[in-house]
Design goal:
Length: 172
């Protein structure tokens, strides 16, 4: 007589689940999205700061004649015309919509292709000089930075770009 072997398996046992559930996948994606959003503001700050740095060389066309006026006349020029520049809204670049010389200070207004956080904002470069020694070269102070020791800053600082967007050399 033939006896069937006993089957020790349960007849309706479910197979163990493998892989991730939909809920687990959604939770992981939510965590990744939150982490990505946390890095976004610092990326925007870096992009805007890079645009400020990229715009700074435009001021060079005014720096040289302003410094020359100080060394020859011991006075800073009052406006664009006195340094041979056209009206402010004609001195432009990809990121700057106007460059104004006023009492030696150079005011750059951001516009054109500048980031929305910069458009309409102003960055000022002010000349610093030793008042009783015009032979000493003019130093340029950007934004909220302090004057070099023993030098006096000239012109008004109209900088209204938030400090977090300014390069280190322009912060107070």
């Amino acid at each position: 007589m033939h006896h069937p072997r006993p089957d020790h398996r349960l007849p309706h046992a479910a197979a163990a689940p493998s892989g991730f559930t939909l809920l687990e996948l959604v939770a992981v994606l939510a965590i990744i999205a939150i982490l990505a959003l946390m890095t976004l503001p610092s990326l925007v700050d870096t992009l805007v700061r890079d645009q400020v740095n990229e715009a700074l060389p435009l001021a060079d066309i005014a720096r040289k004649p302003v410094a020359a006026a100080w060394s020859t006349a011991h006075a800073f020029p009052p406006d664009n015309a006195s340094v041979g520049l056209p009206v402010p809204d004609k001195v432009v670049s990809n990121l700057v919509s106007a460059l104004l010389v006023q009492d030696g200070a150079i005011h750059m207004t951001f516009g054109n292709r500048a980031h929305g956080q910069l458009k309409g904002r102003v960055l000022t470069l002010r000349p610093a000089a030793v008042a009783d020694a015009p032979v000493v070269p003019v130093a340029w102070v950007c934004g909220f930075a302090p004057a070099p020791e023993k030098m006096t800053l000239y012109g008004e600082n109209r900088t209204n770009v938030p400090q977090r967007f300014l390069p280190a050399k322009c912060r107070g």
